[in-house]
Structure formats: structure tokens, C-alpha cells
Specification:
Mean pLDDT: 90
Number of strands: 32
Number of helices: 6
Keywords: Signal
Pfam families: Cu_amine_oxidN1 (PF07833)
Organism: Paenibacillus cisolokensis
Number of domains: 2
Low-confidence stretches: 1-31
Helix content: 10-25%
Largest sheet: 5 strands, antiparallel
Strand content: over 45%
Structural class: alpha+beta
Protein name: Copper amine oxidase-like N-terminal domain-containing protein
Length: about 375
């Protein structure tokens, strides 16, 4: 009898040990679980990471969220005040202070920011509020803070002679901001801006500003949109937008004291002083091909234009409208054949206008089969 009871006690102890062993992974998993966050962006996408809880407040690292939102972070000299700036969005916090500034107004931030391992941490609720998000929730079962609708404030900007030009990534709007800080919209460049954005500025002798905004996008970056504007004292007086595919060269900005504005189909030569259109040309009619054209040079007697697809540089006589295919005049047979038949990366010649000297135009041939740095001379007809 005592032996049986001892056996029962032994079996019970074994059973309890096995049961405890089965429970250990679950308990260990619960202990290892760390609070986290999942934030959904208004334009799509999600950000996630770990949360640090202090004094009943959930904090998250600010750097990654700021980058995702298009905000730049700057610190004051004391390294105690952090400023966050993006397009039409700014806020600032101070380490160990429960008050901050959001869009120019003092506000409570619901916690005290701190720095840990060189990283600034902010209360989750404040970050969501600052980024115009909502629906902040805490899931006790998954130990997760969630929120949605966080906005993005990405923009590409460059400043020239006191004017800052900004392309807003989310909307494709182009703004100009003066030294007073007042912004006004110049143009709509499309919807969401993808890819690279390049600004180029030319100050004319007559006091006008020629602005070019070039966007390169698509996969693999073979689409181009070129917005051109002429401004007088910061005010828009002329604009055009052109689109190109695969091939790209910069359009010329000026020629013969006139500014060049083109949408790829029409060329306007703008008077350098008044901003009025002095002359206009139908590029499709002159080039003879239904295509978008680059304008690579303008002189008193000529235009240098190139159709996007066929890619052969043409000299157009401004008086007669006569057309000269320059590759036929300047290149040898091998290079001519290359220009006509090779389609990698695209058809056409690689002639580049270098300069004018008297009645002679000089070009360089940048074709892969002959990059000889030689200057090819073309004499304008009398």
C-alpha cells in the first residue's frame, strides 16, 4: 500500500514537471515580447518598430519616422532642442520638457522626450498628432500601438537669388517662396512626383529668370518631363512643359538675346527685356516628323533641333525653313551608318553643339564608337 502511494506520488510529480515544461516556452515568449508600433501612412505603406514605455507613456525613435514623413531634423547649439521641418509642416521639442511647438503654436506633448544611445524618442501620440494622423490604439494582447492617416511632407527645393522653388512630392505642385516667407503656386507638374528632380537657373542680361525643372522617372528611369518658366521680378510670364522618352539632352536656354521656351512641339523665342514672344516656330512642321523635339541651339540664322525618336540633329534655316541633317555633312560613313541603324540605347547621332566662331559652328561627336574629342566644323551658308 505504501509502495503504491509512493508510486502515485512519483507519477504526480512527473506529470507536474511535464506540465510545467510545456508552459515554459509560452511564459518565456510572453516575457520576451516587447511593445511595438505599427503606423499607417496616408499615401500607403506602413512603419513599425519597438516602443519604450516610461511613466505610462509610449515613446518611439523619431529619426526613422521623420525621414519617412519627409522631415529634416536640426538641433540647436545646446543639443537640447530638436526642430522638425518639411513642406508646410514644422514642430519642435525640447529634451525632458513636456511642452513643444507644433505648426507655430505652443502645445503639450504628453510626455518628456529623451535621448537614448544617441536617438531621440518622442511620445507616440504626439508624433501621430504632429503628422496629422489619428486612430491611436493600444492592443494589450499583442502589446502594439497602432495609428493611421499619417501625412507626408516631402518636397524638393532649391534657392536662387532669394527665391526658393519647391516641388511638393505628394501633389506635383511647384511653388515659389520669397524672402518674406510667402509662398505661391507656379504650376502643377502632375500627380505624385517620382524619381529625380533637377532645377536649373539662367539669369538673362535683360533681368529675366529662365527656370527649368527636369524630372527623370519610370523604370528604368527612361521618362523625362521638362517644365520651363520665364519669370520677371518673381512673377511668372511664360511657361511650357515637354515630355521625352529614353533619349535626353538639355534644351538650350537662350540664343541671340532671346530666351528659349518649348513644349517639344512649338518653340517660342521670348524677348529678353519685355518677356513677350518675339517669334514662334512649329517644330513638327520644320522637322518633318510627328514627334517631340529638343532645341539644342538657336542663332540669328538657324535653329538646332532633334526629334526624340529618330534622333538626328537638324539645322533649320530660320529664313527659308530649309533643313540640313548635320550627321550627313560632318560624319564619315561608319558613323553615319551607326546613327541610322543602331538602336542601343536609341537611334540617332551623338553630335553635340559646342560653340560658334564667326560663321562656323563647331560640334563634338560623342558616339560610343568614336569619342575622339575632335571638333567638327560646319560653315553656315552665306
Amino acid at each position: 500500500m505504501g509502495e503504491k502511494q509512493g508510486m502515485k506520488g512519483y507519477k504526480l510529480a512527473i506529470g507536474l514537471a511535464i506540465g510545467a515544461a510545456l508552459l515554459l516556452p509560452s511564459a518565456a515568449g510572453a516575457a520576451a515580447a516587447k511593445p511595438s508600433y505599427e503606423l499607417e501612412w496616408e499615401g500607403g505603406g506602413q512603419s513599425s518598430g519597438t516602443v519604450i514605455a516610461r511613466g505610462g507613456v509610449s515613446y518611439i525613435a523619431a529619426k526613422a519616422i521623420a525621414s519617412e514623413a519627409g522631415l529634416a531634423i536640426s538641433w540647436d547649439v545646446s543639443k537640447q532642442r530638436a526642430q522638425f521641418d518639411g513642406w508646410n509642416k514644422s514642430f519642435a521639442v525640447r529634451v525632458n520638457s513636456d511642452r513643444g511647438v507644433l505648426d507655430g503654436k505652443n502645445t503639450e506633448i504628453g510626455g518628456k522626450p529623451f535621448v537614448l544611445n544617441g536617438e531621440l524618442y518622442l511620445p507616440v501620440r504626439f508624433i501621430v498628432k504632429a503628422l496629422d494622423g489619428d486612430n491611436v490604439k493600444w492592443n494589450a494582447r499583442t502589446q502594439t500601438v497602432t495609428a493611421s492617416g499619417l501625412g507626408g511632407y516631402h518636397a524638393r527645393s532649391e534657392t536662387h537669388n532669394g527665391l526658393t522653388f519647391t516641388v511638393v512630392t505628394a501633389t506635383g505642385e511647384l511653388y515659389v517662396t520669397g524672402e518674406s516667407g510667402e509662398s505661391r503656386k507656379l504650376a502643377d507638374l502632375g500627380d505624385t512626383i517620382y524619381g529625380a528632380v533637377k532645377f536649373a537657373f539662367y539669369d538673362s542680361p535683360g533681368g529675366l529668370l529662365h527656370l527649368t525643372v527636369t524630372r527623370n522617372y519610370g523604370e528604368p528611369m527612361i521618362q523625362y518631363r521638362v517644365y520651363t518658366a520665364v519669370l520677371k521680378n518673381g512673377e511668372l510670364i511664360r511657361e511650357a512643359e515637354a515630355g521625352y522618352f529614353r533619349r535626353f539632352v538639355d534644351n538650350a536656354t537662350n540664343g541671340g538675346g532671346q530666351l528659349i521656351v518649348t513644349d517639344g512641339r512649338t518653340l517660342e523665342l521670348v524677348d529678353d527685356v519685355t518677356g513677350r514672344v518675339a517669334e514662334s516656330y512649329d517644330l513638327v512642321k520644320l522637322g518633318g516628323e510627328e514627334d517631340d523635339y529638343f532645341v539644342e541651339g538657336v542663332g540669328p540664322e538657324y535653329l538646332l533641333i532633334r526629334p526624340n525618336d529618330r534622333g538626328l540633329l537638324m539645322l533649320i534655316d530660320r529664313k527659308t525653313g530649309g533643313k540640313t541633317l548635320l550627321y550627313k555633312e560632318l560624319l564619315d560613313k561608319l558613323n553615319q551608318e551607326y546613327a541610322e541603324t543602331n538602336d542601343v540605347p536609341y537611334f540617332g547621332d551623338w553630335l553635340r553643339f559646342v560653340r560658334r566662331d564667326g560663321d562656323t559652328l563647331y560640334f563634338r561627336n560623342d558616339a560610343p564608337i568614336q569619342q575622339d574629342n575632335k571638333l567638327y566644323a560646319y560653315k553656315l551658308p552665306e
